[in-house]
Amino acid sequence: MSGPSAVAPEGERSTVLLVVRELVVLVVTALVIAVVVKSFVAQAFFIPSGSMLPQLQVDDRVVVSKIAYRLHDPRRGDIVVFDAPGGKAKDERPLPARVVRSIVQSIGLAAPSTDEYIKRVVALPGERVEGHGGKVLVDGRELVEPYLAAGMTTSDFTAVVVPPQTVFVMGDNRSNSADSRIFGPVPQSTVVGRAFARVWPLTHTSFL
Q: Computed from CA positions of residues 8, 9, 12, 18, in that sequence, does the dihedral angle turn out positive or negative?
């Protein structure tokens, strides 16, 4: 009498291959979606410094809308991410490494390079902005800035008329921020988008 017949392994192999193929398709689809979303819709950014204290802390993650300024111009008080003045250094890493790094950065799991800054818009095209007596003056009137830490003052700086298609940006931590006081108004063409929400840490999530 013959023993129990063995289950043909062919069916098992087919099932495993099907599962693997589905997983590969899902992973590739997720990567494509991540790249598309990062490129055209929104991106998570990691806060690397204390220039936006107290509202944004070091290591916070914020989500930046890349479509906001396709719908309207930058507004005073917006927190914006923009390309670092002076242009970006060429990334010499292999293409796969650049893609992986880009995806990880897009979801805020890795600190970004120094290619982008995050600051607040304080003056708009055509406005005259200056620092005087510890305050920011726009067209001769004191700018009300409730987002600054108590007692924070702004060092004096020479009056600047903001050129067309640019914005004048400053960090909220005025004593520790490289901003338009140093490198001048920022071209709107270099603005990546508007930060609209803090998503990490989870205990401090909020709209900006």
A: negative
**pLDDT tens digits along 61-70:** 998 988 889 8
CA 36 vs CA 31, 42, 52, 161: distances in Å = 9, 9, 28, 37
Please list the active-site residues. Answer: 51, 119
pLDDT tens for 77-100 read 999 999 998 765 445 556 566 556
Specify whether the CB–CB gap between 62 and 47 falls below 8 A.
yes
Half-sphere exposure of 9 (CA within 13 A, CB side): 0
Between strands 116-123 and 166-170, the pairing is antiparallel
Domains and their CATH numbers in the chain: 13-207 (2.10.109.10)
| CB-CB contact of 106 with 46 (8 Å) | no
The position carrying tokens 């944004």 is 56
